[in-house]
Design goal:
CATH superfamily: MFS general substrate transporter like domains
Distance between the termini: 29 Å
Number of strands: 0
CATH architecture: Up-down Bundle
Largest sheet: none
């Protein structure tokens, strides 16, 4: 069956499109409401950024076991519902003028936990919807393309909504998108098999996930490289909105325009990963993708008229997004082809722990660095740090660990 005729996958795809569009709006609107409405400084923004990633550090391994023991389709449905309800409390509190940074902290952490469970179940659920393994690269590329399309429209829409209707309204859009996505996913009626009954205790189950992860050196290399990159990337995120608003004096609409330009990179990755992988293989193309992660360096170097600043930062984010999504698609396909379905949730939780587990420290480090050195010098150092993924991935490429099974002679 072609992907276009696969009804459950099609509904899943549309639901992903809708919820991600709303998420892109909130990813811009939440830090903007913290800076513009609640007057958050570098330290507060560092804490907010850290709390978004903290669930990956404290919950990833537990949720990996949890995902492998539940019906994944049902779990995805309730994760969407939970995120919609939690995010909806932010515009409600703002309407009654009782919104505080403490509430943003709590909501950010709780939504991050549900998003983590969704992400782990989502990766493990795709092989259920697409049983033909030859279609997995195309399916993962389709999902990445969907994410990228929403990344193009979402930030621009978010910046416009914040500019015209305030940040709480923009966040309310995200809340509604999660609820509608849950209904759409349920309407697709995709297969949702019961997991194989497992009586293994928690720690042995976790060890099985670690063993499956360690047994794939290509997956380990991409994860280690992306984990080192993510530490610095979370630090950049902690400072970026502050830098754009207070030093570059950009409006919410201009920040949204930068995000739109940057999100064209993931969009292109979703389109080209399958043909590029088939034509050139995944080995050295992954090294090129890792080099593109240094696009963050263009942010503190941007200067001149607003249009030039927007174009410069947008180009950096374009290159960064292209590299990140290419690596994610390659790694997801390697994961789904090489690890048995019953271990995908746990292996995915190890990956999430390595990558996003660095996020809380990265966010706090970024806030501290910005408060100590200033926003621009801090962003220069952090931009250099995002290139730390290159040695990991280049070494794996030289050892032949990044090729797909059908590329090996």
């Amino acid at each position: 069956m072609s992907l276009r005729r696969n009804r459950p996958f099609a509904f899943f795809w549309v639901a992903q499109l809708l919820s991600n569009a709303g998420t892109q709006v909130s990813e811009l609107a939440v830090p903007l409401i913290a800076v513009l409405t609640l007057s958050a400084g570098p330290a507060s923004m560092g804490v907010l950024t850290a709390l978004e990633a903290l669930p990956s550090l404290v919950l990833a391994l537990f949720l990996g076991v949890f995902v492998d023991r539940l019906r994944r389709g049902r779990l995805l449905f309730w994760c969407n519902i939970g995120q919609g309800v939690l995010i909806g409390t932010v515009p409600l509190a703002a309407a009654f003028d009782v919104l505080t940074m403490a509430q943003l902290y709590v909501v950010t952490f709780a939504v991050g936990g549900l998003a983590l469970a969704y992400s782990l179940a989502h990766t493990a659920y795709i092989p259920v919807l697409v049983p033909d393994r030859r279609q997995l690269t195309a399916a993962n590329s389709s999902i990445a393309l969907t994410d990228s399309v929403t990344a193009v429209a979402g930030p621009g829409l978010g910046g416009l909504l914040v500019q015209l209707l305030t940040a709480p309204v923009a966040i309310a859009v995200d809340s509604a998108s999660f609820l509608v996505a849950a209904v759409l996913q349920a309407s697709g009626r995709g297969p949702d098999p019961s997991p194989i009954a497992e009586k293994t205790r928690f720690l042995p189950s976790v060890r099985a996930g670690f063993a499956a992860f360690r047994g794939q050196p290509g997956i380990v290399a991409i994860t280690a490289g992306k984990g080192s990159f993510d530490f610095f990337q979370w630090a950049v995120i902690a400072l970026y909105i502050l830098y754009a608003v207070r030093e570059l004096h950009l409006s919410p609409a201009a920040i949204g325009a930068i995000a739109v330009l940057g999100s064209l990179g993931p969009l292109l990755a979703g389109v080209i990963t399958t043909p590029v992988s088939r034509r050139f293989g995944t080995t050295w193309t992954s090294v090129v993708a890792a080099i593109l992660l240094g696009g963050n360096l263009l942010t503190p170097l941007a200067a001149g008229p607003d249009l030039l600043v927007i174009a410069t930062i947008g180009l950096g984010q374009f290159l960064l997004g292209l590299g990140v999504v290419f690596l994610i698609i390659v790694r997801s396909t390697m994961l789904q082809r090489s690890i048995e379905p019953g271990l995908l949730g746990r292996a995915g939780s190890v990956i999430r722990l390595v990558e996003w587990g660095a996020g809380p420290l990265g966010g706090l480090f970024g806030g501290l660095l910005g408060a100590t050195l200033g926003l621009r010098p801090g962003l220069v150092l952090l931009g250099i740090g995002t290139l730390s993924a290159v040695p990991w991935i280049a070494t794996a490429a030289a050892r032949g660990h990044l090729s797909m099974p059908d590329e090996r002679g």
